[in-house]
Amino acid sequence: MKSLAHGKNTLAVEVTNISAHGVWLLAHKKELFMSYEDFPWFKDQTVKSIINVEEQSSDHFYWPDIDVDLTGEMIEHPGRFPLKSKST
User: CA-CA distance, 64 to 41, in Å (whole number)?
Assistant: First the structure.
């Protein structure tokens, strides 16, 4: 009897680390860092809320529990997108 071939990895995005400084997101073999200074919406959230991330479309991430959506470009270059929440 032959074993079936392993399927492809369907998990395109996942949170790999949460620290006192920010959140690390792994997407398509690329690790992205979101500091709480640049992304204050994550600072006081539960781990459950932070790890519940979906990739809505290619390189577009959404956290439904906290209603935050970001693109890879926004995460990599936060200085290009200066608008921040005033509810920190």
Answer: 12
Domain hosting residue 65, numbered range:
13-80
Mean pLDDT (the chain) is: 87
- Which residues, given as ranges, of the chain have pLDDT below 70? 1-11, 83-88
The CATH number of the domain where 48 resides is what? 3.30.2020
pLDDT, one tens digit per residue, over 15-33 is 999 999 999 999 989 999 9
**Read out DSSP for 22-76?**
EEEEEETTEEEEEETTT-GGGTT--HHHHH--EEEETTEEEETTTTEEEEHHHHH
